[in-house]
Amino acid sequence: MATGLVKTNDPCFPWGDSIVEAVSETTDRLVRWRGIDFVVRPNDRPGMNAVDALRSNDSPLVLPEELADAVRRYGAGQPVEGDRERLVQATAHTMSQSVGLSSPLFDNIGGLHQPEADLDDGLADVWTQERLPQLWSKTESGKFLPAAEVPDFAFAGRNPAAAAAARALMAEIVRQQGGTPAEPEDYAALSDWLISVKPEERYGEILSLLPGTDELSPRDLFRAEVTLRNGFTEAVAKNDPSLAAAAVQAASERIDPQLRRLIEDSALASASGAITAGAGYSATGPSTIQPGREQRGLGG
Questions:
Q1: β-bridge partners, 61
Q2: How many CB atoms lie within 10 A of CB 272?
Q3: pLDDT tens-digit readout, 111-158
């Protein structure tokens, strides 16, 4: 079958459009797809560079040829052995790309932004992992194959290392807020909220979810953000999601000494007008779930 830009009479075209529509409806955000660019690429050729995708206002949907051919066979009513699994992967791949394209455009075009691109990929993959079963019937994949006939919606991700790192990062955020273990609704809500944040602001927003962050100086906040960003980058590069969780822990440890200092120094506490010994904090961290978690729709 043909690779390159598909024609509007190609089954991939309306199928992809149905996924974009389902994602846009679910997120209540516009997906940055012009509705005309759907590219089928050779199986051995990588997709669009993630950093470039962050800056694109008209990104095409891109699907590997093997997965696109499965969609085409379903469209023709002639699936072959293995196409059921390929259709699941094709749908998840396109859904992940679509929700990634629902994020705000990346404003900062200078410097090196692989950490932002990796987090963008990971969040989109986790979002898809949590929502693929419920959105299946809203796409043409549900017409090709009813959800009841899909035994497994497993999807490792377009970027499996980033997906695993993002999931570990979110699990540690929930743990820091007192909600252990993380539940599916935590991953669903956190991934959706962070995708709605500008990519260059996400690491800073992650810090805002950690109890006590508002007591840090701008300098300490910057250092904590660098710790988080570098740790996530290392987690993806080494394919070790525990490093992403460790980065959240390390950032939190930068906060705790500041809290202890305020608690122990009554003059500083009065001057800040914030933390006191009775504010629900201990030397090891928060003892209660922070209000920000509920405000952002996170589970308890």
A1: 38
A2: 13
A3: 678 899 999 999 999 999 999 999 999 999 999 999 999 999 999 999
